[in-house]
Amino acid sequence: RINQLYKQQIKPEPHFFDPVTNQQIIVRLLTNLKFLYLKQKSLEKALKFVNLILLVLPNHPLEVRDRGLVYYQLEVWEEASKDLEFYLALLPLAEDADVIRELLEVISYL
């Protein structure tokens, strides 16, 4: 059934069957909902789920970044700037650090 779903051969790996915590299940559910609303361009709803994830995983760098990017798209410049700067403080060598710095520069002119 999995092979049909993914339209390719999936080899079961032992880690597929590792136990997960309640927290991991909740974060996975919230993350799925966040991406659903982002895909639908329902930014306010996506923001609610990012905030819920951050309640479970405070200061998680990627969630802080995502919230900053949602604020950026919503044109909530001060909050976007705070989150994106905090993201860079948490992960100064992040793969997307240059892009984030460019966004912060754009915000500084607004």
Task: Please describe the topology of this protein.
Layout (H helix, E strand, L loop, with lengths): L1 H5 L15 H18 L3 H14 L4 H13 L3 H14 L6 H12 L2
Stretches where pLDDT is under 50 for at least 5 consecutive residues are none
What is the number of strand segments? 0
- Put simply, the count of helices is 6
Strand content: under 5%
Question: What structural category do the secondary elements indicate?
Answer: mainly alpha
Mean of residue pLDDT? 95
Largest sheet: none
Rg on CA atoms, Å? 17 Å
Q: Regarding quaternary structure, how should these chains be classified?
A: single chain
General form: elongated
**Fraction of helical residues:** 55-70%
Distance from first to last alpha carbon: 52 Å
- Give the SSE string: HHHHHH
Q: Can you describe this structure?
A:
- The protein starts with a helix and ends with a helix.
- The protein is mostly helical and 110 residues long.
- It contains six helices and no strands.
- Helix content is 69%, strand content 0%.
